[in-house]
């Protein structure tokens, strides 16, 4: 069973700044401070962290638990109007190629698609609703699950395991995002990581985070299918469990490919046979 987790903003859709506008509205309503999000790095973080930081930028202190709950509700109430405004202004887009990619993956046996996003669950559904992509996802991990992205991903995998009624190995989980934080969270959880560069991430930071696969978007599907182990590698490299997944011995383009442990075991057996024969002489 392969579990493929998708980030939302910049990976599935671009909502034209709807989330930031909704959060600015909520913070201003509570603190009187305008454009608090201008002082906060929102990309790649969880909504829990973003809400606290935005409130602090506007109110000069961290919100209490009650204030955070009120801020969250104001954000969720405002978000549909902001998403609709982006749609009407033609600033709401699906990332290129993602619809066909999801259609392809949804038809494959042994594949489960989920969300691994910093968005609140309600916020995630609101942002995805105009795209029609939500139907592909049966589970997810959300920004309301934790402040930490790696824990959000792990929560998604736990939900997938319950749905599948099976245990899931970290090596069977693939995380697709658009920022270095997506990559770092995936690595922290022990999962594979792939990135689209046409999102909101800083390309330099993304490259430094060393994801296993980087492409502009999903318009060329083959590299993604190869990375996921769902299509043959044209270079004939086999996949498996790798001793040094982030080392220079990796396949230069597709990342987590290289020398399989089974090949190493076979090589060791052959060396032992040669040693025994040599000793016998």
Strand arrangement within the widest β-sheet reads 5-4-1-6-7-8
**Rg:** 22 Å
Number of strands: 8
Q: What ranges have pLDDT less than 50 throughout 5 or more consecutive residues?
A: 239-261
The overall pLDDT, averaged over residues, is 86
CATH topological fold name of the largest domain: Rossmann fold
Largest sheet: 6 strands, parallel
Give the CA-CA distance, first to last residue.
Answer: 49 Å
Number of helices: 10
Global structural class:
alpha/beta
Q: Tell me what the CATH architecture of the largest domain is.
A: 3-Layer(aba) Sandwich
- The run of helices and strands is EEHHHEHEHEHEHEHEHH
| Coarse morphology | elongated
CATH class of the largest domain: Alpha Beta
In short:
By secondary structure, the protein is of the alpha/beta class.
Give structural notes.
With 281 residues, the protein is α/β, with parallel strands linked by helices. It folds into three domains: 2-12 and 95-227, Rossmann fold (3-Layer(aba) Sandwich); 17-88; 238-281. It is 45% helix and 11% strand. It has ten helices and eight strands. It has helices spanning 18-31, 47-59, 65-88, 98-106, 121-128, 149-164, 180-189, 203-209, 222-227, 261-280; strands at 2-6, 13-14, 93-94, 111-116, 139-141, 173-177, 192-196, 213-215. The strands form two sheets. It has a six-stranded parallel β-sheet, with helices on both faces. Strands 2-3 form a two-stranded antiparallel ribbon. α1 (18-31) packs across α2 and α7 (180-189) runs parallel beside α8. Mean pLDDT is 86; it is low at 239-261.
